[in-house]
Amino acid sequence: FWLKPQIDGSGVADASVLFGLMAAILRYEGHGTPPELVMIELQSIIVMDDGSKLGGQHLGVLQIQSGGDVTLSNGPRTLYGKMQNLKKPLVAARKTGQSDPVDGDESRTRSLLAVEGIVRRKAVFSARPQLSIEREGGA
Questions:
Q1: Contact 77, 71 (CB under 8 A)
Q2: In 53-125, at which residue ranges do the beta strands (DSSP E only) sit?
Q3: How far apart are the first and last CA of the chain?
Q4: Which residues touch 92 (CB under 8 Å, ≥6 apart)?
Q5: Is 0.70 surpassed by the pTM of this model?
Q6: Fewer CB near the last or first residue (10 Å), C or N of the chain?
Q7: Phi and psi of 66, rounded to 5°?
Q8: How far, in whole angstroms, is CA 135 from its chain's centroid?
């Protein structure tokens, strides 16, 4: 594939990407650089208590501590893991449903994708969650 970045006068950065016969434009329209996101890798299965789908749900509170340790807490359950750098950064993008012609040719189009952020690190959790039980009165 090839990546061709362009910055127009408005400060909007575009990058055209071609994968075989499919073409797409990655566009970030925010201020400054895209936010850094953290990928979460779990070695288990997540099931919501009420049986609802996982998408859009609050997964828990992610805390990154010194030394690369990381925790993911949800209620009385806590996962312990480690932060790892990715060998190559990833771009998190979403479909916009829009397209642009390729080099002005209306018969060839490329999809417009909105850049949500850049992923450079991942939090890896390989153990089962630990359960913490508080005593009455918060002690």
A1: no
A2: 61-64, 69-74, 77-102, 105-125
A3: 58
A4: 37, 115, 116, 117, 118, 119
A5: no
A6: C
A7: -65, 150
A8: 37
CA–CA gap between residue 38 and residue 113 (Å, rounded): 20
- Mean pLDDT value of segment 66-79: 89
Helix (H) or strand (E) holding 25: strand 22-28
Helix H or strand E encompassing 40: strand 36-42
Other Cβ atoms closer than 10 A to 34: 17
Structure-block tokens of residue 24: 């797409």
Q: Token match 């936010």: residue?
A: 35
Q: What pLDDT, on a 0 to 100 scale, did the predictor assign at position 25?
A: 75
Angle at 56 between CA 73 and CA 37, to 5 degrees: 65
Separation between Cα atoms, residue 31 and residue 9, nearest integer Å:
14
Biggest distance spanned by C-alpha atoms of the chain: 70
